[in-house]
Amino acid sequence: MTLRGSVVGCLCAAGLLVLSVLSACLGRFALQPGQVLHALLTVGHAPAGGDMVHTVLFGARLPRIGGAICVGAALSVAGAAYQAVFRNPLVSPGLLGVLAGAGTGAALGIVWGMGHAGVAALSFLGGLAAVAFGVGVAQMFDAASMLMLIFGGLISSALFTAFLSLLKYVADPQNQLPDIVFWLLGSLTQVTPQALGVLVGPVVVGIVLLSACGRMLDGLAMGDEEARTLGIPVMALRYGVIGGATVLAAMTVAVAGMIGWIGLVVPHVARLLVGPCNMRVLPVSACVGGMFLLACDDLARTLSAEEIPVGLIADLLGVVVFVAVLPLLRRGWRA
Amino acid sequence: MNGSQPVLRLDHVGFHRGRRAVLHDVSLGVRTGEMTALLGPNGAGKTTLLRLLLGLARPDSGQVWLDGQPMAHWSRREVARRIAYVPQGHAPLFPYSVRDIVGMGRLAEAPFAPRLRERDRDAVAHALAELSITHLAARPYTELSGGERQAVLLARALAQGGHILILDEPETGLDYGQKQRLYALLRRLAQRGHAIVATTHDPVQAARIFDRAILLRHGRVMEDGPAAALLVPVMLDRLYAPQGGSEE
């Protein structure tokens, strides 16, 4: 890694750590940084029955902080991977229908009266099903064509968005419809220690595997045929990366609902920080995305007495960040 | 022509696009130490022939042989270690540095390595020096002129380390001096034992520079022989005559 990449990587990691401690202090039951650090250092020696600090910190705040970091990191890495695979800076993880499919799965679970775990599982499966459908449509016509893949994604997104609208139409307007709407707005309120335990492993593995493909993704930027002459197995790489990024994105919707813009905006910020090489862009995207969603969640928890859905905050802040960095990005693009 | 065994060979190859025949019964061999020019009018099948030589397309009939084995025997990485390709100049969307682009030539050696290893960095530095573009190493490739981009792509091919070099109209966009330096470099590489194959639309230069010319017309090899002897006005008139009833 270059000196610049190493410095940015260290700064990102330090920033994430500091923001995590600050986030642990924020909330209705305010904590001092010293209390947080002390509780973390004495985690194995908590008072019998636990005290308030331990209860708040380990029962609510840390799982939520971990959830925000995981979801932000996963969406950002998925977005960066999609942008590299499709050689398009305007692509986000929703391109092939994963978000529409995951939203539909969640809505179906809510309409069927399932518990949170069931809704999350259906959401995850819905995301995978939507992408599989989009890829299947593309394979029917031309498996090697990226354009057909995008068309397949558009068709899948439209289909699953229609299913979602249908589910909203038939949902009980008193109980189910508000639940569906709240899910679609995106929230981290349901992140429990158990949910975080399920999320962390696959997210870390996914980020590491996608990052390991970084140099080959750079080669893919030169075009499919040229990439093949460089020794890159183009189709295996494309579908492998799409599969990995889809699993990451579907997991985020299963845990936190629909959170947009991060997957589009954060990879651009990462490229501004470390240049275009994906071996650096992907891990730095994970760090920046984690920080971004954590900051959004802090605002969602503290801006008003009632918690604001974090998806709303992420959308609003994402637009502001994107407009702010757009002039810098255009200088780097060929067009 | 030298008498060594061909390192890359087409053996009675035919290729169709849909129902249209693009190449018919093409046989030719590429030898180390030899510079071969591929000429023909637009639509004669030159690009398809290059794709077959690069292993990017499979023939509908006949066989492509690389280093004595059928092309299908080799994996994509193994082909990339043997054959390097220099496309016509273009630019990716993102502003990779020249060093990054040349470093892509080492992908076949260690595709999952987090960074270039020492011997890969040496190969990149050597290729940059060979093309006299070391001073461009940190520049964004997207900001270079057409000639500079061509030099970078050639450096990437050298870094790749194969013994066969295939170039698609390498003189496009180059000024006179850049062309002369390119031809001198290709000659040096051939003398070091590389096999060079290049498509070109400049028969006058090809007659001066290349050892051998393959003339392609209507998807067939019209002539194959010493460049200086073949690329004469009467032959070029035949080669570039209007292709009435063209099969491509």
UniProtKB/TrEMBL annotation, chain A:
<feature type="transmembrane region" description="Helical">
    <location>
        <begin position="191"/>
        <end position="217"/>
    </location>
</feature>
<dbReference type="GO" id="GO:0033214">
    <property type="term" value="P:siderophore-iron import into cell"/>
</dbReference>
<feature type="transmembrane region" description="Helical">
    <location>
        <begin position="237"/>
        <end position="264"/>
    </location>
</feature>
<keyword id="KW-1133">Transmembrane helix</keyword>
<feature type="transmembrane region" description="Helical">
    <location>
        <begin position="62"/>
        <end position="82"/>
    </location>
</feature>
<dbReference type="Pfam" id="PF01032">
    <property type="entry name" value="FecCD"/>
</dbReference>
<comment type="similarity">
    <text>Belongs to the binding-protein-dependent transport system permease family. FecCD subfamily.</text>
</comment>
<feature type="transmembrane region" description="Helical">
    <location>
        <begin position="94"/>
        <end position="114"/>
    </location>
</feature>
<keyword id="KW-0472">Membrane</keyword>
<feature type="transmembrane region" description="Helical">
    <location>
        <begin position="308"/>
        <end position="329"/>
    </location>
</feature>
<dbReference type="InterPro" id="IPR000522">
    <property type="entry name" value="ABC_transptr_permease_BtuC"/>
</dbReference>
<feature type="transmembrane region" description="Helical">
    <location>
        <begin position="120"/>
        <end position="141"/>
    </location>
</feature>
<keyword id="KW-1003">Cell membrane</keyword>
<dbReference type="GO" id="GO:0005886">
    <property type="term" value="C:plasma membrane"/>
</dbReference>
<dbReference type="InterPro" id="IPR037294">
    <property type="entry name" value="ABC_BtuC-like"/>
</dbReference>
<protein>
    <submittedName>
        <fullName>Iron ABC transporter permease</fullName>
    </submittedName>
</protein>
<feature type="transmembrane region" description="Helical">
    <location>
        <begin position="148"/>
        <end position="171"/>
    </location>
</feature>
<dbReference type="GO" id="GO:0022857">
    <property type="term" value="F:transmembrane transporter activity"/>
</dbReference>
<keyword id="KW-0812">Transmembrane</keyword>
<keyword id="KW-0813">Transport</keyword>
From TrEMBL, chain B:
<feature type="domain" description="ABC transporter">
    <location>
        <begin position="8"/>
        <end position="243"/>
    </location>
</feature>
<dbReference type="GO" id="GO:0006829">
    <property type="term" value="P:zinc ion transport"/>
</dbReference>
<keyword id="KW-0813">Transport</keyword>
<dbReference type="Pfam" id="PF00005">
    <property type="entry name" value="ABC_tran"/>
</dbReference>
<keyword id="KW-0862">Zinc</keyword>
<dbReference type="InterPro" id="IPR027417">
    <property type="entry name" value="P-loop_NTPase"/>
</dbReference>
<dbReference type="InterPro" id="IPR003439">
    <property type="entry name" value="ABC_transporter-like_ATP-bd"/>
</dbReference>
<dbReference type="GO" id="GO:0016887">
    <property type="term" value="F:ATP hydrolysis activity"/>
</dbReference>
<keyword id="KW-0406">Ion transport</keyword>
<keyword id="KW-0864">Zinc transport</keyword>
<comment type="similarity">
    <text>Belongs to the ABC transporter superfamily.</text>
</comment>
<keyword id="KW-0547">Nucleotide-binding</keyword>
<dbReference type="InterPro" id="IPR050153">
    <property type="entry name" value="Metal_Ion_Import_ABC"/>
</dbReference>
<dbReference type="InterPro" id="IPR017871">
    <property type="entry name" value="ABC_transporter-like_CS"/>
</dbReference>
<dbReference type="GO" id="GO:0005524">
    <property type="term" value="F:ATP binding"/>
</dbReference>
<dbReference type="InterPro" id="IPR003593">
    <property type="entry name" value="AAA+_ATPase"/>
</dbReference>
<protein>
    <submittedName>
        <fullName>ABC transporter ATP-binding protein</fullName>
    </submittedName>
</protein>
<keyword id="KW-0067">ATP-binding</keyword>
